């Protein structure tokens, strides 16, 4: 609060008294000391004067018609605009109970009539100085809170950077080490399959040319169940081929997710990043003993290549998908899914991913689940660092905070959460197609 509206006055004083002589006396005395003085003959006028211009100190009489000083003070303290203004009661009442009541309703000082001018001035100056110190303290507290928030943001960013570097190195190393042997296996399976087929053909020709094998050969054919081996061997080669192909797909997803060599901004296919995250989370989507498999519904729009930090954006997709799975596991594993089963309903856990172009210059990615939703009282804090609704040991409270920084600060976008009790939650990301 500015204590000096102009350089000519030490402070703005509102004097409230129903006796005109008292008003004139106090006004003349305080004006002579350099204060700007305003006068009010009753409580109603005093409240109006405070709304028009906030005083630095109020001198308030107790015995007034209509509304006494106690009532005026109570109304002042109940109003957010005037509650911080110091109120000094000045009254002829000298009883201890009157003074106690004055302090109970919010007064900061009490002066008994007849008063001494010097005492009044000193007490007013004391309250103005106290208010000035309180204001400076509040400003310092605000600056400290800002510094603390900035420090937390810097800590989160540092953790994010370290995690991304470590994750990128780990994933790139694993992908490289796995890629070499699996490429060898995958490349040779085709030849192995051909060799097996040639050997099977050779055996068939032998059986045609020599339909009556020796007893020893016939015994071996029976022991190994040759017909079964021939049929199963071909199935086995096919299964090995599919397994190797799956490993190659996972390795490719790991490389695409980490993008260790793509720390700079570049144009990427958003859908590839989402699909890579889904591949890495495939084990969490499968059916468990407590819930059916989570169905992923892709509603992909026709998106252009987006100019972004691919690795960090992929991490946002991973956080949001992980949170959606956690939310459904919590609601479906506990009472929510059990109640639906008891009622004979077949509600399948589902994640819906919707992408589209918005306003021609932005892309919107929405990831929604059909879990139990997020309480309204918690949604305002979802993106605060270290805030989590998960049980101890299951969440650090950094995932959504990091995601918010990546989307808002690094991509000049928006991330929001919409949720309704019992109907799940939707996290929506909106980022520009081309960053300025």
- Quick one: biggest sheet? 5 strands, parallel
Poorly predicted runs are 1-7, 335-345
The percentage of residues in β strands lies in 5-15%
Integer-rounded radius of gyration: 39 Å
Overall residue-averaged pLDDT value: 82
CATH first level of the domain at 262-432: which class? Answer: Alpha Beta
Query: N- to C-terminal separation?
Result: 40 Å
Helix coverage percent of residues? 55-70%
Question: Could you walk me through the main structural features you see in this protein, from its secondary elements to its overall organization?
Answer:
- The protein is an alpha/beta fold and 436 residues long.
- Among the domains are: 12-115, 3-Layer(aba) Sandwich (Rossmann fold), CATH 3.40.50; 262-432, 2-Layer Sandwich (Heat Shock Protein 90), CATH 3.30.565.
- It has helices spanning 20-32, 43-52, 69-78, 96-104, 117-209, 215-224, 226-258, 270-280, 282-285, 310-333, 335-342, 376-379, 399-410; strands at residues 12-16, 36-40, 57-60, 87-91, 109-112, 266-268, 295-299, 306-308, 350-358, 362-369, 414-419, 425-432.
- The strands form three sheets. Strands 2-1-3-4-5 form a five-stranded parallel β-sheet, with helices on both faces. Strands 7-9-10-12-11 form a five-stranded mixed β-sheet. A two-stranded antiparallel sheet has the order 6-8.
- Strand 11 and strand 12 (425-432) form a beta hairpin.
- The two termini are 40 Å apart.
- Residues 173-435 form the Histidine kinase domain.
- Keywords: Kinase, Phosphoprotein, Transferase, Two-component regulatory system.
- Residues 12-128 form the Response regulatory domain.
- The modification 4-aspartylphosphate is found at residue 61.
């Amino acid at each position: 609060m500015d204590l000096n509206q102009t350089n000519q006055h030490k402070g703005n004083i509102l004097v409230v008294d129903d006796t005109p002589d008292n008003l004139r006396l106090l006004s003349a005395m305080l004006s002579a000391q350099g204060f700007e003085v305003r006068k009010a003959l009753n409580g109603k006028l005093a409240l109006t004067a405070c709304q028009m211009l906030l005083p630095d100190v109020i001198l308030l009489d107790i015995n007034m018609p209509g509304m006494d000083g106690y009532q005026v003070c109570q109304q002042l303290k109940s109003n957010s605009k005037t509650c911080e203004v110091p109120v000094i009661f000045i009254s002829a009442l000298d009883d201890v109970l009157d003074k106690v009541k004055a302090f109970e309703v919010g007064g900061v000082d009490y002066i008994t009539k007849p008063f001494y001018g010097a005492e009044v001035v000193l007490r007013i100056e004391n309250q103005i100085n106290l208010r000035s110190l309180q204001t400076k303290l509040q400003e310092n507290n605000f600056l400290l809170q800002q510094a603390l928030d900035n420090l937390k943001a810097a800590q989160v960013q540092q953790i994010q950077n370290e995690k991304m570097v470590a994750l990128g190195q780990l994933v790139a190393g694993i992908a490289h080490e796995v890629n070499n042997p699996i490429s060898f296996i995958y490349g040779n399976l085709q030849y192995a399959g051909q060799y097996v087929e040639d050997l099977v053909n050779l055996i068939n020709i032998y059986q045609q040319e020599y339909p009556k094998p020796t007893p020893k050969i016939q015994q071996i054919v029976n022991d190994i169940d040759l017909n079964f081996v021939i049929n199963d061997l071909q199935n086995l080669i096919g299964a090995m081929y599919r397994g190797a192909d799956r490993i190659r797909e996972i390795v490719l997803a790991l490389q695409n997710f980490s993008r260790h060599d793509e720390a700079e901004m570049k144009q990427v296919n958003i859908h590839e990043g989402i699909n890579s995250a889904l591949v890495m989370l495939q084990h969490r989507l499968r059916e468990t003993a407590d819930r059916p498999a989570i169905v992923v519904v892709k509603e992909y729009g026709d998106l252009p290549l987006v100019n972004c930090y691919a690795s960090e954006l992929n991490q946002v997709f991973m956080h949001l998908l992980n949170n959606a799975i956690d939310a459904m596991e919590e609601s479906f594993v506990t009472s929510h899914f059990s109640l639906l089963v008891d009622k004979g309903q077949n509600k399948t856990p589902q994640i819906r991913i919707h992408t589209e172009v918005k306003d021609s210059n932005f892309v919107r990615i929405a990831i929604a689940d059909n879990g139990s939703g997020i309480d309204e009282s918690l949604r305002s804090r979802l993106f605060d660092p270290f805030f989590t609704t998960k049980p101890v040991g299951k969440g650090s409270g950094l995932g959504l905070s990091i995601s918010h920084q990546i989307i808002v600060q690094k991509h000049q976008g928006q991330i929001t959460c919409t949720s309704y009790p019992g109907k799940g939650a939707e996290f929506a990301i909106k980022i520009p197609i081309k960053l300025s």
